[in-house]
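## retry 2 of 3
previous attempt timed out at serialization; input unchanged, resubmitting
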Amino acid sequence: MKLYVTYTSPYARLARMMVVEKKLEGRVEIIEAKTRTPDSPYYKINPSGRVPYLIDDDGVGMEDSQIICAYLDGLDGKPWLYDPKRTSDLSYRRIEATARSLSDGVSVYVREMRRPESERSPTVLAHEAARAQRLADVFEAKMSDPVMRGPLTMAHLVLAVALDEARRRGSGDLTIGRPQLAVWMRRMSDLPAMRATAPA
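## retry succeeded, writing output
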C-alpha cells in the first residue's frame, strides 16, 4: 500500500498515526506528495491534490482521513478506533465532530498565515482564533465525560492533533488557563504515534 502525505497536513498526520498505532509500517509505504504546485506529478495519482491519499493492495485509491483511518484500523479485523459500537453512539459522535470542527478551524488559520502578509484576512484570522478559544473551553468542560476519560478513540487523536497544530503553527497554546485540558494533552503527547509523527 502507498500512503501519500504532506508533513504539514494535520489530516495526513492522522493517517500516519494510524499506521503507527496499528503497526503497519512494514505494509504501508509513506510517500511525500508535492501539492499546491502547478503540474505536480501527484495530480496524476490523485486529481484533487488532497492529502492523505491511500492506494490499497488492489490499486484502489481513496482520500479523506476519516475513510483512510477507518480502512487502516480494520485491516486486521480488529478495529478499535472505529469500533462500530462506539461510532454508532451519538454521544461519542458529537465529541468527535466537535474535535473535527476545532481541527478544521485551526487548519484554516494556519493556511491563512501561510499567505503573504498583504494577502491575509484579519477577519478570517480573528474568527478562527475566537472559534478555537470557544472550542477549547468546550473541551475543558468535557474532560470529565466518560468518552474523554475512556479508551483511546479517533476523537482523542483528532483533538490532540488539533491542539498540537494550534500550538505549533496556529493561534497559540489552547491549553493555557485550561488545567484539565492541559493534563489530558500532556498524556496524549506521550503516545508513540504522537511522538513519531510530530512535525520537525
